[in-house]
Amino acid sequence: MQNRKVVLTGDRPTGPLHLGHYVGSLANRVLLQDTYLQYVMLADVQALTDNFDDPEKVRQQVLEVALDYLAVGIDPQKSIIFIQSMIPEIAELTIFYLNLVTVNRLKRNPTVKTEIAQKGFGESLTAGFLMYPVSQAADITIVKAQLVPVGEDQLPMIEQTNEITRKFNTLYQADVFPEVSALIPKVARLVGTDGKAKMSKSLGNAIYLSDDADTVVKKVMAMYTDPNHIKISDPGKVEGNPVFMFLDAFDPDIAKVQELKDHYARGGLGDVVLKKYLAQVLNTFLEPIRVRRRDFARDKGEVMRIVRAGTMATREIAGKTMQEVKEAMKIAYW
Ligand code: ATP
Ligand code: MG
């Protein structure tokens, strides 16, 4: 444990985890936990920014997301899982960071801009939502993370984080925070089952890690493909076809995928046959995850004990970081 180089934290999925999360960050997290000291955050404070009127839902999600992480292979012996709201130092650091970023800069953040449009906030946009990149910067830096595995849509958040901590280090003439880099996966972004740019729970186009086999079959059979591929004999479009993007991301048999692509492009391969194959590939991938999920779900008390231990460990390092922050800011009074 001691030799592991860098800490990771920082991305903050809020709801049940889906295949997009897997491609974007979970796969890397599972790999990195052997060589890095990894922090994994259950982002309940973030979830409250657009669910503040439904705290019960947020509370339930904490356990569900913890189960998803454990099911996918985050090993509590190697990684530290913690609850965001139980680390008050994150909120404290956020307050100090807020002086170092302008409202205009937050409004220009491309990820936030897209989300504001997508969620249709309009005039009801809260200050809490607008400033969530600042709180994200705080949860990345409270453990001094240097590497954060995220999907490409999170790049603006990492940039924003570095802007804030550079400013902090310069202004207070202290070397408190290291630069943080994003680790972006090969498949930078997984499309939704509807072919839309991003699989996302808010767009209703997600396949969840906790979906049962029948649900996966149903979702795949309803998937968007090439709308001009009408007769089986018609040549189909592979480029931009979500079915092939999913196969590229989840089928270990690369030769077989190439063969299917060639066949589809030539004509003679029907969507139904192709989708049945994809459903099978996804279910093969998801089955061991479901089994582990069921195992952990049998003892929810144990899951909460894991999360509690991780939270305590995080508080310890968070307290140390805050002490350094306050010393740098000359507000460590005793
Ligand atoms: P959703 O967008 O489904 O409501 P969320 O808001 O809870 O989920 P995000 O913050 O969007 O979660 O994503 C958490 C992590 O997963 C980020 O690193 C993000 O880049 C990655 N991610 C999410 N969806 C996708 C996707 N479709 N493809 C690749 N990476 C993704
Ligand atoms: Mg999101």
What's the layout of helices and strands?
Elements: E1 7-8, H1 19-32, E2 37-42, H2 44-51, H3 55-72, E3 79-83, H4 88-98, H5 103-108, H6 110-119, H7 127-130, H8 132-141, E4 147-149, H9 155-171, E5 181-183, H10 213-221, H11 242-250, H12 254-266, H13 271-297, H14 300-328
Parallel strand pairs: 1-2, 2-3, 4-5
Helix pairs in contact: 2-3, 3-13, 4-8, 4-14, 8-9, 10-13, 11-13
This protein binds adenosine-5'-triphosphate and magnesium ion.
The site of adenosine-5'-triphosphate has 21 residues, from helix 1.
Alpha-carbon distance between the termini?
32 Å
| Order of H and E elements | EHEHHEHHHHHEHEHHHHH
The CATH level-2 architecture of the largest domain is identified as: 3-Layer(aba) Sandwich
Kindly provide the name of the CATH class of the largest domain. Answer: Alpha Beta
Number of strands: 5
What helical percentage do the residues reach?
55-70%
What does this structure look like?
- The protein folds into two domains: 6-190 and 300-328, HUPs (Rossmann fold); 213-293, Tyrosyl-Transfer RNA Synthetase, CATH 1.10.240.
- Helices cover 55% and strands 6% of the residues.
- The protein has helices at 19-32, 44-51, 55-72, 88-98, 103-108, 110-119, 127-130, 132-141, 155-171, 213-221, 242-250, 254-266, 271-297, 300-328; strands at residues 7-8, 37-42, 79-83, 147-149, 181-183.
- Strands 1-2-3 form a three-stranded parallel beta sheet.
